[in-house]
């Protein structure tokens, strides 16, 4: 959420850190705040890689060790999740 408004669209640069061993989760280093859940993670060509789901510093004041590094995560739209989506898509 930027400027206290979670309805305002904004671009935020992030750095991809790693993919979970189950191939369903992406870990990133970026600012992730309350209200950002469900936002797509896209590149400059608008290719969607995941849907943002959680962060460790949602209100900008967390003492969690991951919050100090601004670690966040997303559900990947590739691998197992992609297979599931395509199988159940109507």
Describe, in short, the structure shown:
This protein is 14% helix and 30% strand.
What this model shows, in words?
- This protein is α+β, with helices and mostly antiparallel strands and 90 residues long.
- The protein has a single domain, classed as Thrombin, subunit H (Beta Barrel).
- The protein is built from two helices and five strands.
- The chain has helices at residues 65-68, 80-88, and strands at 15-19, 25-29, 40-42, 48-55, 71-76.
- Strands 1-2-5-4-3 form a five-stranded antiparallel sheet.
- Strand 1 and strand 2 form a beta hairpin.
Structural class: alpha+beta
Kindly report the spatial arrangement of strands forming the biggest sheet: 1-2-5-4-3
Count of runs of 4 or more consecutive helical residues: 2
Oligomer: single chain
What is the rounded Rg?
14 Å
Mean pLDDT: 79
The count of domains is: 1
GO molecular function, one term: serine-type peptidase activity
Protein name: Serine protease
Keywords: Hydrolase, Protease, Serine protease
Question: Which helices and strands appear, and what pairs or packs with what?
Answer:
Layout: E1 15-19, E2 25-29, E3 40-42, E4 48-55, H1 65-68, E5 71-76, H2 80-88
Antiparallel strand pairs: 1-2, 2-5, 3-4, 4-5
């Amino acid at each position: 959420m930027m400027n206290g408004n979670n309805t305002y669209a904004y671009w935020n640069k992030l750095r991809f850190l790693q993919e979970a061993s189950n191939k369903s989760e992406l870990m990133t280093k970026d600012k992730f705040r309350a209200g950002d859940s469900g936002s797509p993670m896209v590149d400059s060509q608008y290719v969607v890689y995941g849907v943002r789901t959680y962060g460790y510093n949602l209100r900008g004041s967390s003492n969690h060790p991951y919050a100090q590094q601004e670690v966040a995560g997303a559900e990947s739209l590739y691998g197992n999740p992609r297979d599931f989506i395509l199988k159940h898509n109507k």
